[in-house]
Backbone:
């Protein structure tokens, strides 16, 4: 009796694993399909650019405040921590380089993507999930209007356009925050701060790579948010789960992709 | 070209294995108002979705304007849908657009009309449902009945030749009910459109319909003109038309024995 119970629970466990694996793979496939369809039906997002512009306002402009405030604090903390270490080696003027490189290469794209997933990604998922729940997408289909062209694609391009700009802004504001801590507060020489930065930040290796990262993160985050909303079961609970998943999956994807991209950039 | 703009031919469909429609045959002649009636959950909304090509039948065919709906590719289906307007059971207004923009939506998406003409057309449609004064309100600021009237205005925005109304009378006060009733009939006659009405309201439906189908248990249980059906002695039709609780139509979704469920306290 006990033995057969054990066997049954093991079988359950294995079946659970199998089921999860299959559903993950299935979702990956469905997400890729949505991505390809989105690209295919993107014409309208550019022909009627005001549709995309409106979404840029909701995803990009509305994220400005959180991005700027976070960047400011991140820059200030970087300067404090960096100074602490650098002064032990008597090279506290290098603080400008440290702040700028950390921001441009890593923190700008990554933290922006994480904040974007939390601020704009969840909004996209909830909005599309709710449109599905209230049959708005069905109604659109019945009017012979393709929801992927009319709803998904403009939001996708809005995300892809906004996020690199937000990331660039993050780096700039972060550097400013670092400057305020390093120069007026700690007393590092202002000339050294800027000139070292100018001499050691490379356009190709640092800035372009940072931009590439933020474009990749933008595609991933926006697409995950759109897919989760599109795929959400049409109930309040379904939409709330989907919103949570958007944050979790986007964050993990961004951090994972960051590692992969960074290693490629180091090699090349 | 046949005289029927929509034909349903031996149609079967089911969700998750439970067969909902078991061989339905219906015909919707051009220019007529045809009603589909039946108990709650008998698959009327699903039938409209099958006509619109949102779901595929398990068996049988739906023909719209001579074309088999589920055999069309995406463009073909969109081509057919341009001929249809649909009032959704729950309105399905776009919550991020105002009343005006909701009605203007199909015009802006599917036509190249200049904005000034769209404005006039939208105001005309809203006027027809008595809501011209509410054009700047957002859907959340409308009452349930108002929202459904806006949805109706949107469904007929492009003067489609097939209009499907899912419960057009639900949640309306007697005055609006009369107006909407007249509106459906006059739209139909003025434009030569075909109307498909799904409804529970025997009284209103019988006033405007030319022909009525009753669905029960997945088949067409009775059909005929309202006049014939009023005289009908079929127990099913009699029960429905006179709203009696006891009769062949079950009020309950299939379930186990009520008493034993209550006593055993388990499902
Ligand atoms: N998406 C779905 N998945 C599974 N079952 C569904 C789905 N939609 C509807 N059903 C089932 O199909 C049956 C018919 O639904 P439908 O909405 O067509 O009924 P209806 O005739 O329009 O009812 P009402 O008059 O209450 O609107 C119901 O029993 C419902 O449980
Ligand atoms: Mg229904």
Residues:
């Amino acid at each position: 009796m006990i033995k057969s119970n054990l066997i049954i629970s093991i079988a359950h466990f294995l079946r659970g694993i199998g089921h999860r694996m299959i559903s993950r793979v299935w979702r990956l496939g469905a997400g890729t399909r949505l991505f390809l369809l989105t690209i295919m039906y993107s014409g309208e997002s550019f022909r009627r650019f005001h549709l995309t512009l409106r979404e840029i306002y909701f995803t990009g402009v509305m994220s400005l405040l959180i991005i700027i405030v976070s960047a400011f604090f991140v820059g200030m903390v970087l300067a404090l921590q960096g100074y602490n270490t650098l002064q032990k080696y008597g090279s506290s003027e290098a603080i400008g380089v440290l702040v700028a490189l950390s921001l441009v290469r890593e923190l700008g794209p990554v933290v922006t993507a994480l904040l974007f997933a939390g601020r704009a990604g969840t909004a996209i998922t909830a909005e599309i999930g709710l449109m599905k729940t209230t049959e708005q997408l069905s109604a659109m289909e019945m009017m012979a209007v393709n929801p992927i062209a009319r709803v998904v694609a403009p939001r996708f391009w809005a995300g892809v356009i906004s996020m690199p700009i937000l990331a660039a802004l993050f780096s700039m504001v972060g550097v400013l925050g670092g400057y305020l801590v390093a120069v007026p507060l700690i007393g590092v020489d202002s000339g050294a701060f800027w000139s070292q930065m100018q001499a050691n930040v490379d356009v190709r290796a640092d800035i372009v790579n940072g931009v590439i990262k933020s474009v990749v993160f933008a595609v991933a985050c926006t697409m995950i948010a759109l897919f989760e909303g599109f795929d959400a079961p049409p109930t309040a609970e379904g939409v709330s789960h989907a919103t949570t998943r958007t944050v979790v999956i986007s964050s993990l994807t961004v951090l994972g992709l960051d590692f992969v991209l960074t290693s490629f950039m180091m090699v090349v | 070209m046949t005289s029927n703009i929509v034909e349903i031919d031996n149609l079967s469909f089911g969700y998750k294995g439970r067969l909902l429609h078991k061989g339905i045959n219906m015909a919707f002649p051009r220019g007529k108002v045809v009603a589909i009636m039946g108990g709650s959950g008998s698959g009327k909304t699903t039938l409209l979705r099958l006509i619109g090509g949102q779901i595929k039948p398990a068996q049988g065919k739906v023909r719209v304007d001579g074309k088999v709906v589920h055999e069309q590719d995406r463009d073909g289906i969109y081509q057919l849908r341009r001929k249809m307007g649909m009032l959704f059971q729950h309105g399905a207004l776009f919550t991020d657009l105002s009343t005006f923009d909701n009605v203007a939506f199909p015009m802006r998406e599917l036509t190249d009309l200049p904005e000034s003409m769209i404005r006039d057309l939208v105001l005309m449609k809203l006027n027809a449902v008595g809501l011209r004064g509410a054009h700047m309100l957002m859907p959340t600021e409308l009452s349930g009945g108002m929202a459904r009237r806006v949805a109706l205005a949107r469904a007929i925005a492009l003067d489609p030749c097939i209009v499907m109304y899912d419960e057009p009378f639900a949640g309306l006060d007697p005055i609006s009910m009369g107006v909407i009733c007249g509106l459906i009939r006059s739209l139909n006659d003025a434009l030569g459109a075909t109307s498909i009405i799904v409804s529970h309201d025997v009284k209103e439906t019988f006033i405007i319909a030319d022909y009525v189908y009753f669905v029960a248990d997945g088949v067409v249980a009775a059909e005929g003109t309202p006049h014939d059906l009023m005289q009908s002695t079929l127990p099913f039709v009699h029960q429905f038309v006179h709203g009696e609780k006891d009769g062949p139509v079950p009020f309950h979704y299939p379930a186990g024995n009520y008493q034993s469920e209550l006593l055993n306290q388990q499902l």
User: Anything to note?
Assistant: Residues 41-265 of chain A form one domain.
